[in-house]
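Notebook, p. 212. Picked up where the previous page left off. The plan for this session was modest: take the two constructs that came back from the sequencing core last week, fold each one, and keep the raw output in the notebook itself so nobody has to go hunting through shared drives later. Recording the first one now, exactly as returned: residue sequence, then the structure token string.
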Amino acid sequence: MLSNRVVIILVTALAPMIWGTSYLVTTELLPPGRPLLAAVLRALPAGLLLVMLTRRLPQGMWWWRAVVLGALNIGLFFALLFLAAYRLPGGVAAIIIALQPLLVAGLASGLLGERLTLRTTIAGAVGVAGVSLLVLRADAQLDGVGVAAALGAAVAMATGVVLSKRWPAPAPLLATTGWQLVAGGLVVLPAALLVEGAPPPTLSTENLVGYGYLTIIGAALTYPLWFRGIRALSPTHVTFLGLLSPLVATALGWLALDQELTAVQALGGLVVLAAIAVAQTRPPSHARLPRGQPGPSVRRASSTH
């Protein structure tokens, strides 16, 4: 029998694995040159759907907290990631985003009182190395704006993940996820209109299928899984699972698009999996609990999600 913690890890891992399919969906089903529109249509309709299903709106301080979390976890992250991908060829953006577990570990140490261990630091460095082997190309060139955007995206989502743990929401998981998706979609919307202009007047059946997949599967399904993992696990452990996204994207490129898979890339994939496995080890029993979080026995008794 798998332990409850292992089950939560495996279920949470589904989110970044599904996000890894976004590249294939975007390139094969969506109109070209519209990544910000895809971000809006991925987040905003999914958020509205979850809000309608739960019939819960934020109250009190959760109006501004939902906006902050939605901007960090979704809106700013998507916008900066788009800019980084546009300015940085050769998978450089993915390598910089892979720094996120290390950023989360540092922020969790300062804001949540979690112990920053040597094991976590080494696993984070190994994860970055694995992603580098997986996606880096020999002709990759650095661009100052692109590097800054990629770092900004990593910092934004890392901060959002840690604050999601620091601010335990009183509302059901689906409701708080919906709030963040709506806020994130609204943050990206002005940038999409400014950079890409009005949406295409007509969409093909393939386009509609692609947008529908990103909305229902890529957001409405995956973000509740992701935030449920953050509620139940250490945010550092959760963000290591994000390294599965470039791994899945590379595998799908090989399987579905006949892209070359080299021995170096295969080695990189194994290194990524090793880093994730090492990072998921249970923290020492003397590690401090996140501020404002009850002990394990209290959490088990009060958990309703």
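Okay, moving on. Second construct, recorded in the same format:
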Amino acid sequence: MGDTVSRHIHLLRHIPQHGRISVTELLARLHGDGYRVERRTIERDLNKLSSKFAIAGDNTKPQGWSWVKGSTLIQLPALSPAMALTYRLVGDYLARLLPREMHSHLGPQLDLANATLAASSGGLHDWSHRVAMVPMGPDRPAPVTDETVMATVYDALLQNRCLEVRYRAANAEAVKEHLLNPLALVVMDEVVYLVASFVDGDDPYQFALHRMSAAVLLDEQAQSPPEFTLRRYLQEMRGFQYSHQWPITLELKVNAWLARQLQERPLAPGQTVRPMAGGEHFRVVARLDYSDQLHWWLHSFGSAVEVLKPVKLRREFAAQYRELAARYG
């Protein structure tokens, strides 16, 4: 493909169907694609392409370009290396957060992205092989979820419609049927959760998709609880912090290496880290909410962490470690 034709394809791809884009913005994007051209070249390209494609400039200053309203947007096969890398990373890490019907459209785009990156001579062609997201604990496989159930849940969320599901909770033997208002999806530790409220209530609950044995999409429109947003549910209501949530002033005695980690990633704003007598240990003080996750996190460091305060929490840890010592003794 000639350089001019290739540049024209990339130029058309950057023109929006809705809104507008200026010549300055188009020039910057083409530079990002690797085309070292001048502004006058882009202006000539636009005028030439507007005679063959349904693109037009407006009468404002600076002039903005867009596809003509009501025109059929052409799907151009070329991808820039940057966009190809984006598609690949979406396929690697975000596919489960997309509506199920998008997966069939994503497949050809991923094939095109892989081909584009393979042919690229820049540094992006092997970027996805140089970056990764890894779990904090053991690398366990994701639980198996029924594909039909998953597709139905995603459709319900996308269409804002109620769901009827058959669900067995983790601590229950019996399967129960629930009528739900789907509110959001959250992925945590490879598990996909539906955040939903019961149709006769407002409180949001979590339902792991792999524990659903059946799901039926209903005609009724889902109703969101008053003032519910996913951000508020996660950040203010601490929806995935589980039980035992109350504010505490946590005081710890930690090893030097853990003190450095906590300086890099504090437990909470206002945290203090100060050396203790002898210089081998540090005192960490932070004001935060106590939760099951915090409890598990403290346990995960073993003897590298000593809980000093609150006294009640220190006594709980002491009793648990005595029980463990007896088991291993």
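Notes on construct two before I forget. The chain has four domains: 3-67, 81-129, 147-235, 246-328.
Flagging for discussion at group meeting.
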